[in-house]
């Protein structure tokens, strides 16, 4: 028992010693509370941000986005894309539309960042299909994947607005990579192929939606501005993919498509930045220019410089009065123009304030005269008789006088404030330096607000002080003159009725004459059919019935029919047959008879030989 009691304190001492050694080791490494502050600060400091360089050949932004020939500089559009001066409509709000825009040249950036500003708007609660941002080895101008080609080699960031798989996880932003050998699973929204995703509603927002896509040190990050605020830097994290391998060179692009539902997919800007790690110099474009191109640009520069010198000499010869004056003194600089505009604005403000001050003085004089006249009237009438009809009581008079005094006090306060404003503007008109002028912007805003307040107070006072019978009223409209009397109206109705009846009678006569002519023609056709024993026509019978079954042929047609009928009867008679025989050629008849006889004879001989 004694041994055990002796070993207990030793064990506690050893444990305390071990704890002391552990704390000392942490102190030496800077992890404890007593560590080196410099080391702790260095460990807690985040890595320095990369260097960003804007690449204009891989970007577009309005206004003046489209050239005169309808193309976008350094970009190619395909499908149903519609470029305009301030945006590119990738896919319009029509069914089954596809469009895309792609950079013409490949980008060879190790690290890059893309900022896309777009709008997706539609009338329905649900839209389709969506929009995609691409970085691929080849251009996918047209295809089934949001308007771009399938089996791409690179990465696509899809802003999918339609829920194809029915899981109610759309609209969503999905990152999908491809090595050029995988088909996109459109029916399931690429759920099995997605590297990362987030659910964000980007349709029908009050402000344009912004997406920042960063590829830095093989890490792809997507940040999104939800479109509820105009703040350009208000981004929130969406998705991130580590160890992302993409082609070393590729095209940037953006595409969109619609299906049975349709949205307008408008891209306002596409800005590309090359990222360089801290401590590394970004590659300069001068190193990529060959010696021949440098010589060509140098020759063009020298040529333009010579033309400029010639133009200067011609201008100096044409303007000898400007000899010896530097060219900078002839034209107004930007700073001088801004100072001149500021001084002109101050002068206008000063004049307006002076005019308001004069109007306030006039109001004060008028109020003083009004108060003095009321005071005199009170002194003359005395206290007044309370119950007498038509008189004003002493209490009402006191109320009016107190009101006028209050108005005078307020007008005096406004006048004093106006005087302070005049002094302030007068001091601003003689600034000591240009910096003082630029610092006076806040004073101008205060003066503007103060002028609005003074104007509103003056209008209120004028309306308050004007008697009810003297207040301006809206002018009454003059009686609307009657431009049509009863007699004129009756005459107009009678004339219109007569014209209408006459037109109806004319139409009836014309229709009757037309029907009569059609019936006469039908009657003629019936006579001809009876003459030549042809079948009757039901249409002709109907036309004759429409004419009332009382149709006669015209005299000239009847004579022609009668003459033809007499000629036919003469031909059918015996005399007509004899006359026809006289007119026949006997030699011809004889020859025909001999030929017939010869043919019959030959036929008989052939039959006999056969027997």
Automatic annotation (TrEMBL):
Residues 1-30 form the signal peptide. Its main location: membrane. Residues 52-275 form the L-type lectin-like domain. It comes from the Eukaryota. The gene is LMAN1. This is L-type lectin-like domain-containing protein. It comes from Felis catus. It is a single-pass type I membrane protein. Residues 287-314 form a coiled coil. It is found in: Membrane; Synapse. The chain crosses the membrane at residues 487-506. Pfam families: Lectin_leg-like (PF03388), Synaphin (PF05835). Belongs to the complexin/synaphin family. SUPFAM superfamilies: Concanavalin A-like lectins/glucanases. Keywords: Coiled coil, Exocytosis, Membrane, Neurotransmitter transport, Signal, Synapse, Transmembrane, Transmembrane helix, Transport.
